Amino acid sequence: MEQLLVPTICTVDQLIEETPDVRTYRLKFKDDSLTDSFKWLPGQFVEFSLLGSGECTFCIASSATRKGYFDCSIKRAGIVTADIHNELDEGDEVGIRGPYGNWFPLEELKGKNLLFIGGGIGLAPLRSLIQYAIDTRNEYKDFTILYGARTSADICYKEEIEEWKNNESLKVILTIDKAEEKWKEHVGVVPKILEEKVNPVVENTKVITCGPPIMIKYTLMSLDKLGFAPKDVVTTLEMKMQCGFGKCGRCNIGSTYVCKDGPVFTYEELQKLPDEF
Ligand SMILES: Cc1cc2nc3c(=O)[nH]c(=O)nc-3n(C[C@H](O)[C@H](O)[C@H](O)COP(=O)(O)OP(=O)(O)OC[C@H]3O[C@@H](n4cnc5c(N)ncnc54)[C@H](O)[C@@H]3O)c2cc1C
Ligand code: FES
Fold first, then answer.
1. Structure confidence at residue 205 as a pLDDT band (50, 70, 90)
2. CATH at residue 14
3. What span, in angstroms and rounded, lies between the C-alpha atoms of 155 and 170?
4. Element (H or E) spanning 176, and its range?
5. For a 10 Å CB count at each end of the chain, is N or C smaller?
6. Spacing, Cα 239 to ligand 1 middle (Å)
7. Does residue 9 lie in a domain region?
8. Of ligand 2's atoms, which has the minimum distance to the CA of residue 243?
C-alpha cells in the first residue's frame, strides 16, 4: 500500500463537535489527484501535523468505502491536541502522512458474527471497520455494537449511532456509567452490560474492541468468562509514537513495533508480549 512519507497538505472540510472534548475533522487533500491514490484499511493510522505546533498519531476513523474524504476524531489530551482544538477550523490546512500500521483481519472476519465493543473515543477505530462492514454487509452474519461512555454527553458520533439503530441488520446497545434523568438505555460499565445484557453467541463470533485501558482490562476478563478464545478477540493499541513506520524505536514492546507490527493485535498475540505491556 502506497504511503505518504512526508506531511502532505489536507484541508479541513468539516468540523464536527462530538463531545465536550472530542472533535471530528473531515479532511480532503488539497491536491485532488491524491484523493483516489490515498488508500487505507480499517485500523490504520496517520501522523497528523498542526503546522507550527507538532505531530500526533490518530487512527483514520472513517472507511475508504465512503469516498472523497477521511475523518480523524481527536480528543483533547495534551499540548498538540489542545492546539488542534483551539486553532484548527474549517478551511484550515494540516499535514498528513501515512497511512501506517496493520489493519483489522478483514478476511478472517468474513462469514462471522461481529461483536464490536467500544468505550469513549475508542469507538473511532471501530467506526472505520463498522462503516466498512456496513458497506459490505453481506459478508458477515450477526452484527452487534456495544458502546459505552462516561455520560450521555460523552457519546461520540451521536447522529450516526441513530442511523445504526435504525438499521435493522445491526443490534446497537448503548450504556453510560451513571443514571441520568432523560437516559432511556443501559446504565453500567461496558463489561457489566456485556455479561448481563448482551448475551453474545460465542461460536463463530469475532470480537473487536477498543477503549480506555481499564475498560479493555475488564472487558477481556468478561470475554474470557463468557468463553471467547483469545485468538477471536482483536484490539488496537495506543502507544506513544514518533515516526510511525518502525524506524525510531519509540513504540516497541520487546521486539514488537506497535506502529509497524500493530496497532491491531489479537488478545492471543498480546499475551505473548513481554510484561512491559
Ligand atoms: C495508533 C494510535 C491511534 C490513535 N488514535 C487516536 C484517535 O483516533 N483519537 C485520539 O484522540 N487519540 C488517538 N491516539 C492518541 C493520540 O495520539 C494522543 O492522545 C496524542 O498524541 C496526544 O498528543 P498531545 O501532544 O496532545 O499530548 P501530550 O502533551 O504529548 O500528552 C498528554 C498526555 O497524554 C498522554 N499521551 C500522549 N500520547 C499518547 C498516546 N499515544 N497514547 C496514550 N497516551 C498518550 C501523555 O502521556 C500525557 O499524559 C492514538 C494513538 C495511537 C498510537
Ligand atoms: S513510532 Fe517509530 S518505531 Fe514505532
1. very high
2. 2.40.30.10
3. 18
4. strand 171-176
5. N
6. 8
7. yes
8. 2
Q: How far is CA 38 from the centre of its chain?
A: 19
**Total structural domains within the chain:** 2
Query: Which residue range is the domain that position 205 belongs to?
Result: 106-236
DSSP result, 23-34: EEEEEEESSTTH
| Protein residue closest via CA to atom 31 of ligand 1 | 78
* Distance from the alpha carbon of residue 78 to the mean position of ligand 1, in angstroms: 8
Model confidence at 240, in pLDDT bands (50, 70, 90)? Answer: confident
- Angstrom distance (rounded) from CA 259 to CA 271: 18
Give a yes or no: residue 182 inside a domain. Answer: yes
Torsion 73-79-85-90 (CA) sign: negative
Q: Does 121 share its domain with 197?
A: yes
In the listed set 70, 100, 130, which residue is the last one of a domain according to the structure? 100
Q: What pLDDT shows up at residue 276?
A: 59
For ligand 2, whether the C-beta of 251 sits within 6 Å is yes
Give pLDDT tens digits for 91-150. Answer: 999 999 999 999 999 999 999 999 999 999 999 999 999 999 999 999 999 999 999 999
CATH of the domain at 225: 3.40.50.80
Whole-model pTM? Answer: 0.95
| CB of 94 sitting under 6 A from ligand 1 | no
Residue range 253-263, pLDDT digits in tens: 889 999 999 99
Mean pLDDT for 76-94 is: 97
276: in domain: no
